[in-house]
């Protein structure tokens, strides 16, 4: 696709973030276009649809103040490429990869297509290296491993940014000193949140290992469609070319999805649920599936996407489709937050699908799986009883039932709850779990192998 | 494109991407392309092939992993590296490998379509019958002698009625959207044993049956499918990863070669064909993947094998249909799905069944489809349309999954219309009381849920002792029988004898306990009996230990309740 200069002025329609350009016969699907404005500035766009005599173009900078007559549209004949280099580390870029930290452009070591390519499933290395985040509710019950994609489902006003920052700060793989990097993609977050992350990274010395892509709430919404792809391309370069272990934090996926919805609406597509396009599952998968490990390559990409659930509704299409793609989820609860518990992780709807391979004798501790399962059973029962008590009072409860209520309270405060700067080793986390489980008589611990009870149980025997 | 055929395969553009014609109008053809179409421009050439989208059938399928249009992923990896680059291809069946062919026919034999020409030992266990293509018949004019052949070597020469000569190789093609013909469809007769208690004992599947596993994300659909692929007693497994995760395919590829089939003592991978078209691979190939899978399943069925096909997830397939239909600007039905959603699903599940093949062999294809309803809401079109067709329904439940009650099969919503078919088998392999026990235990669970509702209103202490006892036994049933961890080394597979015996212990405990409570024992006293504790953790107990203790525990139950009955 190396055609001569193809420049057109014939914008025949502007609809939302979409332009229709006439007179072009050979626009390539997904080809990059430059939309030139009268004031000499340029906006990036991409071909969504091409037919004889017409191209439909999505403009990432938005179409605000674009005008059918004066804009010129230049077709570049290339897919969206991004220059990448190791010296991106420590830098801050806009949501479309322009440096915004006052530094110069990076000298590219390589150009990569930002849409990426699917990893051949036969080349995937199954992720099983335990990442200790220092957060009990995660390490103990929803263990994260290298190469996993584990989103945080949150809501407005909940401390997801603090949690993400704490994980970024504390995460380590025990017994290794391998090189790591953080790639942060912000989509539609507030200036305050952006500042929070920059400050966090600076104070903890993580800045030097971090690349930030910032699309803030007042930046063009359509730019959000490229921001995560740029970030993931940078991550792939650092992971698979430079051999680093990369943690990608993407916030807020909901803002990304709204941008998708906007494009879809402008194209008058038939929506699936709540106005979101029918291909949103596939589109989100093209981001999330870029996490992983590849056989024979040293690095890895671990994703921590953050999304806000509109109305705290986990069945909303954004969390729903995300949950169907990612390898589990960490769910924050407004109720726990109100009770003053940090991090307000509601473990019941949480899940880490890759936990099984990352824990156990050689990796964490032999009793880990049983303990986690028992905590779940006990907490679920405690919650059910608490619900019952709320309706009918606690008169009819048995002594055992009351133990579950005690457990419930202590579990939330002592196990889930921890300080913002408190990192617990996995040993500490499991010991805490045994402290709590030991309030039950032994035979309540049906999910635990008796051998572990003999080793770790601290309650009254008999 | 005048003269082109519907469903004809074409090569699109300068990169010759593989596509299929899915719409024809005058001289305009609509093509769905199975690869990423980035960079394609109007005016690029399209070449016709004259063939429908087909799969290659022949020895060498077992142990392979393909994408949705049967491109071998391992081979693609050695051509293009770690990432899937478009425009690469490689033959589905290895061309160089030689197989030991033993003819079954001789010169002069009259053959009908689907007849067995000869055999190849594909693995130590699987004898691969080479079948005459279904639409051919005639007289054998020459047949290759016993020896080593590649899939492209001619092994049979056939003269049809019109005197045309046909040269037959071990490699044959079949269009994926067309069911392979059979002689006769037969009713299913025996259960598909999966080693999963809640399935085998409560909601059984049969060989040649259809089942659906719907559930919200994280409820355990994939684990159920993987468990069935690992432990079910089918001869051949076709596993279709349709629009799901790359790591799940990697997981299968990592585990299956190391796992040993309890029946044949061979690595599980040797009886498995994987189709992996993950969520980030092209949508059109995802749409094709279930057809690719079921065609391969039918092919082994025609040799007389019992084949089980898992499709995870049929919802992603339906979404692929929706996406393609949307691009065609067809009239949308419910939730934007095309109006033909229901009939496509029905046609797919209709390809399951126990049959007499053209060769006269008896084989079966069992189909188990995962369904991923948006928001976990079963009233959506894919779940509803599927429910109309399948005979087994394992409804997975978010609440159970949250408590880590796995498999999270909701016992109130799930059903199997094959329970009656399974009963004679269980009577023979377990005992004659199987049906009665199953009924009693299912009723126990039903009763539990009614009682739970009452408890929600009045609290537990006002319940009569007998009801308290019911709740107590139901808890035992749930925790020690229904819960079964896929990750427990022992409990991942529970042999039928053990299932039957576990059921029997709990049932005995229920009946004798009821009597004892009738005679004055309290539910709390019953719960405090040592034997109640013996019923916990039976699953993870090594099968031999369990078998040894079984009789003892049975007697302990009898003894324990004697006091109460006195
Ligand atoms: N039988 C089981 N034993 C133990 N754990 C299980 C079992 N079934 C499910 N799980 C747990 O639940 C998790 C989610 O299961 P699974 O991946 O099968 O869900 P799913 O329904 O396929 O979700 P999705 O629709 O998102 O693919 C597993 O990773 C595992 O931790
Ligand atoms: Mg799944």
From TrEMBL, chain A:
Its main location: membrane. GO terms for cellular component: plasma membrane. Residues 134-352 form the ATPase F1/V1/A1 complex alpha/beta subunit nucleotide-binding domain. Residues 11-77 form the ATPase F1/V1/A1 complex alpha/beta subunit N-terminal domain. It is a peripheral membrane protein. The keyword Membrane applies. It comes from the Archaea. Pfam families: ATP-synt_ab, ATP-synt_ab_N, ATP-synt_VA_C. InterPro entries: ATP-synt_VA_C (IPR055190), ATPase_F1/V1/A1_a/bsu_N (IPR004100), ATPase_F1/V1/A1_a/bsu_nucl-bd (IPR000194), P-loop_NTPase (IPR027417), V-ATPase_su_B/beta (IPR022879). The keyword Membrane applies. It is found in: Cell membrane. Keywords: ATP synthesis, Cell membrane, Hydrogen ion transport, Ion transport, Membrane, Transport. Signal peptide: none annotated. Belongs to the ATPase alpha/beta chains family. Component of the A-type ATP synthase that produces ATP from ADP in the presence of a proton gradient across the membrane. The B chain is a regulatory subunit. Has multiple subunits with at least A(3), B(3), C, D, E, F, H, I and proteolipid K(x). This is A-type ATP synthase subunit B. It comes from Methanocalculus chunghsingensis.
Automatic annotation (TrEMBL), chain B:
It catalyses: ATP + H2O + 4 H(+)(in) = ADP + phosphate + 5 H(+)(out). Has multiple subunits with at least A(3), B(3), C, D, E, F, H, I and proteolipid K(x). GO terms for biological process: proton motive force-driven plasma membrane ATP synthesis. Residues 91-177 form the ATPsynthase alpha/beta subunit barrel-sandwich domain. NCBIfam families: PRK04192.1. The gene is atpA. It holds the Pfam family ATP-synt_ab_N. This is A-type ATP synthase subunit A. PANTHER family: H(+)-TRANSPORTING TWO-SECTOR ATPASE, V-TYPE PROTON ATPASE CATALYTIC SUBUNIT A. Residues 195-416 form the ATPase F1/V1/A1 complex alpha/beta subunit nucleotide-binding domain. GO terms for molecular function: ATP binding; proton-transporting ATP synthase activity, rotational mechanism; proton-transporting ATPase activity, rotational mechanism. HAMAP family: ATP_synth_A_arch (MF_00309). CDD domains: ATP-synt_V_A-type_alpha_C, V_A-ATPase_A. It is found in: Cell membrane. ATP binds at residues 215-222. Component of the A-type ATP synthase that produces ATP from ADP in the presence of a proton gradient across the membrane. The A chain is the catalytic subunit. Keywords: ATP synthesis, ATP-binding, Cell membrane, Hydrogen ion transport, Ion transport, Membrane, Nucleotide-binding, Translocase, Transport. Residues 4-50 form the ATPase F1/V1/A1 complex alpha/beta subunit N-terminal domain.
């Amino acid at each position: 696709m190396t055609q001569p200069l193809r420049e057109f002025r014939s914008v025949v329609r502007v609809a939302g973030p979409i332009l229709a350009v006439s007179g072009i016969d050979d626009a390539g699907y997904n080809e990059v276009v430059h939309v030139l404005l009268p004031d000499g500035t340029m906006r990036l766009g991409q071909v969504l649809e091409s037919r004889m005599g017409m191209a439909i173009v999505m403009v990432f900078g938005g179409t605000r103040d674009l005008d059918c007559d004066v804009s010129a549209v230049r077709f570049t004949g290339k897919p969206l490429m991004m220059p990448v280099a190791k010296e991106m580390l420590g830098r801050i870029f806009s949501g479309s990869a322009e440096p915004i930290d006052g530094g110069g452009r990076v000298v590219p070591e390589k150009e990569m297509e930002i849409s990426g390519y699917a990893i051949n499933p036969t080349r995937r290395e199954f992720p099983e290296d335990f990442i200790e985040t220092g957060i009990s509710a995660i390490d103990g019950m929803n263990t994260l491993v290298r190469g996993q994609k584990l989103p945080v489902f949150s809501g407005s006003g909940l401390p997801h940014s603090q949690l993400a920052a704490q994980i970024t700060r504390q995460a380590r793989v025990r017994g290794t000193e391998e090189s790591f990097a953080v790639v942060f993609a912000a989509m539609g977050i507030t200036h305050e949140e952006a500042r929070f992350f920059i400050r966090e990274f600076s104070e903890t010395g993580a800045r030097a290992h971090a690349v930030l892509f910032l699309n803030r709430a007042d930046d063009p919404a359509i730019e959000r469609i490229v921001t995560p792809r740029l970030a993931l391309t940078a991550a792939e370069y650092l992971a698979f070319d430079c051999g680093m272990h990369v943690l990608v934090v993407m916030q807020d996926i909901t803002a990304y999805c709204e941008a998708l919805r906007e494009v879809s609406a402008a194209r008058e597509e038939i929506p699936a649920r709540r106005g979101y396009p029918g291909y949103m599952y596939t589109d989100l998968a093209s981001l999330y599936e870029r996490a992983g490990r590849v056989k024979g390559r040293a690095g890895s990409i671990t994703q921590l996407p953050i999304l806000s659930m509109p109305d705290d509704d986990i069945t909303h299409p954004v969390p729903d489709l995300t949950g169907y793609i990612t390898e589990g989820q960490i769910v924050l609860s407004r109720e726990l937050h109100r009770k003053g518990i940090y991090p307000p992780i509601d473990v019941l709807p949480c899940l880490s699908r890759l936990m099984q391979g990352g824990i156990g004798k050689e990796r964490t501790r032999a009793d880990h799986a049983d303990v986690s399962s028992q905590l779940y059973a006990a907490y679920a029962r405690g919650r059910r009883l608490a619900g019952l008590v709320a309706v009918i009072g606690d008169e009819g409860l048995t002594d055992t039932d009351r133990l579950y209520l005690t457990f419930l309270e202590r579990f939330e405060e002592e196990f889930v709850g921890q300080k913002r700067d408190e990192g617990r080793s996995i040993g500490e986390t499991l010991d805490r779990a045994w402290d709590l489980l030991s309030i039950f008589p032994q035979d309540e611990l049906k999910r635990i192998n008796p051998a572990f009870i003999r080793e770790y149980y601290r309650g009254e025997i008999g | 494109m005048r003269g082109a055929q519907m469903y004809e395969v074409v090569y699109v553009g300068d990169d010759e991407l593989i596509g299929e014609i899915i719409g024809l109008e005058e001289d305009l053809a609509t093509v769905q392309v199975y690869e990423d179409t980035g960079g394609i421009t109007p005016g690029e050439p399209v070449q016709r092939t004259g063939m429908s989208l087909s799969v290659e059938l022949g020895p060498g399928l077992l142990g392979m992993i393909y994408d949705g249009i049967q491109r071998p992923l391992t081979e693609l990896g050695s051509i293009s590296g770690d990432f899937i680059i478009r425009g690469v291809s490689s033959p589905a069946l290895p061309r160089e490998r030689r197989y030991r062919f033993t003819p079954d026919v001789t010169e002069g034999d009259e053959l009908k379509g689907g007849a067995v020409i000869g055999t190849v030992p594909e693995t130590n266990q699987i004898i691969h019958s080479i079948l005459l293509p279904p639409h051919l018949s005639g007289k054998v004019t020459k047949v290759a002698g016993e020896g080593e052949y590649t899939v492209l070597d001619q092994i049979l020469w056939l003269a049809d009625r019109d005197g045309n000569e046909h040269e037959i190789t071990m490699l044959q093609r079949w269009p994926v959207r067309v069911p392979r013909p059979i002689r006769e469809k037969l009713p299913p007769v025996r259960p598909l044993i999966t080693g999963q208690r809640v399935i085998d004992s409560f909601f059984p599947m049969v060989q040649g049956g259809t089942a659906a596993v719907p559930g919200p994300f994280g409820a355990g659909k994939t684990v159920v499918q993987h468990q069935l692929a690992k432990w079910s007693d089918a001869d051949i497994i076709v596993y279709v990863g349709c629009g799901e995760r790359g790591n799940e395919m990697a997981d299968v590829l990592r585990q299956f070669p190391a796992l040993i089939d309890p029946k044949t003592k061979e690595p599980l991978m040797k009886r498995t064909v994987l189709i992996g078209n993950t969520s980030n691979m092209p949508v059109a190939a995802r749409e094709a993947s279930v057809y690719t899978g079921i065609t391969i399943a039918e092919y082994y069925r025609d040799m007389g094998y019992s084949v089980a096909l898992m499709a995870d997830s049929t919802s992603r397939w339906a979404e692929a249909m929706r996406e393609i239909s949307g691009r065609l600007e067809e009239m949308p039905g419910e939730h934007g799905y095309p109006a033909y959603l229901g009939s496509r699903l029905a046609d797919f599940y209709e390809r399951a069944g126990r049959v007499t093949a053209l060769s006269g062999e008896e084989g079966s294809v069992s189909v188990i489809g995962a369904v991923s309803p948006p928001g976990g809401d079963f009233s959506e079109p894919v779940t509803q349309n599927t429910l109309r067709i399948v005979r087994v329904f394992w409804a997975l439940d978010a609440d159970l999954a949250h408590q880590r009650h796995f498999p999270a099969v909701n016992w109130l919503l799930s059903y199997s219309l094959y329970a009656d078919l399974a009963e004679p088998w269980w009577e023979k392999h377990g005992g004659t009381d199987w049906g009665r026990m199953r009924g009693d235990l299912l009723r126990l669970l039903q009763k539990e849920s009614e009682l739970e509702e009452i408890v929600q209103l009045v609290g537990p202490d006002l319940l009569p002792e007998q009801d308290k006892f019911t709740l107590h036994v139901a808890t035992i049933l749930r925790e020690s029988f229904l819960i079964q961890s896929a990750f427990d080394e022992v409990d991942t597979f529970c042999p039928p004898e053990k299932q039957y015996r576990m059921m029997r212990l709990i049932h005995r405990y229920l009946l004798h306990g009821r009597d004892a409570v009738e005679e004055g024992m309290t539910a709390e006293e019953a719960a405090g009996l040592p034997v109640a504790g013996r019923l916990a953790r039976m699953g993870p107990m090594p099968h031999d230990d369990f078998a040894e203790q079984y009789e003892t525990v049975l007697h302990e139950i009898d003894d324990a309740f004697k006091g109460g009955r006195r």
